[in-house]
């Protein structure tokens, strides 16, 4: 008899009755439920939940098939369903997390390995060529020089602290590549953040400003980063993000040094800086990237941070903000966020 | 016709294939084929894909194909479907597809 399989989707936020079964299926496969998953594809067979695959925006996680339902290509149906679901939600370029020992399984889904944290986890993407094409596009912008620096900024929003870091790195190196984090998961939108970085670094001659990508501090490479405002510190997934930088991005652009500000306030970023030294300098046969930690610029003895600016903005304290951000950022904040101005409009 | 958006056609199941299309940033035509029978039929699959794209006058775009041992007619149908979705075509010249 051929078992009838019923595929359908459930959203954890609706607290569907399936969540208990999903948790159990994951647990028997040594997986934990990832709280960021927006939607699950599940398969029910004769009343029993036998397979699930979770989707967090454009990243597939928490995939499991019950042991007695394996060996009959149920996984390929599951893969088709979750890839189709992602497409319906507008995501075609997909990433996938799996424990190292299951990589081969996902090759059958059309996923290819990007980076691996040995004995722990592998990040894959559903293209054999996308990362190569991305690196080639970077390589075309590769400048001459020996000491090439890289900085990744979320710039939420761009402050004098960011500007100081950029100027310092540019002064110490032949060329500087600045990446703006593209993921739209911050208070300020990506186009706004990018524009503020652009105007804030315009005066630096030996610099290329790059648009961010799915490969640099994105929901795929570093899901925990975007949770920090909620004060949830997940496992540190920083290793994946840093290995991508070391193995693909840095070699494409010839980056030898990564500059970063010291982090006195933010636990996630602070941990990221510590992880950075390990994953960029040790831990891999790929040539190391030297991490240069620059003490934060301060005003009146208080280190400048974007989170401080956001707090002051919530209080509409523009005179305090003025001391922390370049004129271009101040103007933007006043135009767009001043309660007085918007009330009179 | 021009690929203007991402699209998907097909499945991962046996005797089928999954075709994923995306616009090309540089205006190049990139075709990446993975198949369980790449050693025996890789050349043939590639020929069917490029023929189908030629007939549809597709000269740029990124095509990623995960083949599960599909017959030529299935490959053609899936590639055509993916292209029609990716080009947002309403005014299709169906005679070209035969």
Can you characterise this structure?
The complex is a heterodimer of chains A (345) and B (98). With 345 residues, chain A is an alpha/beta fold. Chain A has 2 domains: 5-128, Gcn5-related N-acetyltransferase (GNAT) (Aminopeptidase, 3-Layer(aba) Sandwich); 134-344, 3-Layer(aba) Sandwich (Rossmann fold). Chain A contains 12 helices and 14 strands. Chain A has a 7-stranded mixed sheet. In chain A, strands 10-9-8-11-12 form a 5-stranded parallel sheet, sandwiched between helices. In chain A, 39% of the residues are buried. With 98 residues, chain B is an alpha+beta fold. Chain B has one domain. Chain B is 35% helix and 24% strand. Chain B has 2 helices and 4 strands. Chain B has helices spanning 38-55, 72-87, and strands spanning 7-10, 17-22, 29-35, 61-67. In chain B, strands 1-2-4-3 form a 4-stranded mixed sheet. In chain B, α1 (38-55) links the parallel β3 (29-35) and β4 (61-67). Chain B is globular, with a radius of gyration of 12 Å. In chain B, 39% of the residues are buried. Classes of the chains: A alpha/beta (345), B alpha+beta (98). At the A-B interface, α2 of A face β2, β3 and β4 of B.
Spatial order of strands in the largest sheet of chain A: 1-2-3-4-5-7-6
In total, the number of strands of chain A is 14
Shape annotation of chain A: globular
Catalogue the unreliable spans of chain B. Answer: none
CATH topology of the largest domain in chain A: Rossmann fold
Let me know the average pLDDT of chain A.
Answer: 90
Total tally of structural domains of chain A: 2
CATH class of the largest domain in chain A: Alpha Beta
Helix content of chain A: 25-40%
Rg calculated over all Cα atoms of chain A: 22 Å
Distance between the termini of chain B: 17 Å
